[in-house]
Amino acid sequence: MDQILAAEESQPKVANVTFNPALWLQRRTWVLNQLREHRATSVIDLGCGEGSLLSVLCQPASTIPPKPDDTTPNAEIEPTLDIHISHLVGLDVDDQSLKIAVEETAPVLEDRLNDLPLWERPRPRWLDLDVQIYRGGLEVLNGDDGENKKRWFGSKTGDWDAIVSTEVCVWRFLLLPSCTTS
């Protein structure tokens, strides 16, 4: 019995850590705040998975984006709580996750609107939104094919306001040498 107690005492103690709010929610809140602060309108989500961030960004803003005063060059725009996204790109390597991402970002069809309860109906969209979902890794973005680069980054890298990558797990597989016996 003493040996069991001694073994338990020698085990390292593991702290039970709980995040409130959940860590994923804290990360998402930070990303959304950054997009608001920088007034992002075009976003690439690397490792978009099932499209949880993309689906949030697809939600229509409740206001029309403010415009600077035309008489004052470089006029400051009043900050707004809304994020006015016009172009989204999602990239991931997992086919199953991408199928869900496509469903999560698809607009509700007009003929289905009447079947939804009022509280589930989407708000009207004031601005057009272009969503593109691609399968592949980062090598797709950095490929030699000029057409792919144009599709991702437009004519210049600066065409995108934000590139986001959250909740991405990088898996590294070790290839062990095979053991042979003689």
Task: Describe it.
By secondary structure, this protein is of the alpha/beta class. It has a domain of 113 residues: Rossmann fold (3-Layer(aba) Sandwich), CATH 3.40.50.150. It is 31% helix and 11% strand. It has 7 helices and 4 strands. Helix 3 links the parallel strand 1 and strand 2. The radius of gyration is 23 Å and the shape is globular. The C terminus is likely disordered.
Short description:
The protein is an alpha/beta fold. It is 31% helix and 11% strand.
Which descriptor suits the 3D outline? Answer: globular
Percentage of residues in DSSP E strands: 5-15%
In the CATH hierarchy, what is the class of the domain at 19-59 and 81-107 and 124-168?
Answer: Alpha Beta
CATH architecture of the domain at 19-59 and 81-107 and 124-168: 3-Layer(aba) Sandwich
Average predicted confidence as pLDDT? 75
- N- to C-terminal distance: 46 Å
Overall structural class, as computed from helix and strand content, comes to alpha/beta
Spatial ordering of strands, largest sheet: 3-2-1-4
DSSP summary, beta strand count: 4
CATH superfamily grouping of the domain at 19-59 and 81-107 and 124-168:
Vaccinia Virus protein VP39
- Poorly predicted runs: 148-157, 173-182
Encode the helix/strand succession as letters. Answer: HHEHEHHEHHE
How is the main sheet built?
4 strands, parallel
Number of helices: 7
Cofactor: Mg(2+)
GO cellular component, one term: nucleus
InterPro entries: Hen1 (IPR026610), SAM-dependent_MTases_sf (IPR029063)
GO molecular function: metal ion binding; RNA binding; small RNA 2'-O-methyltransferase activity
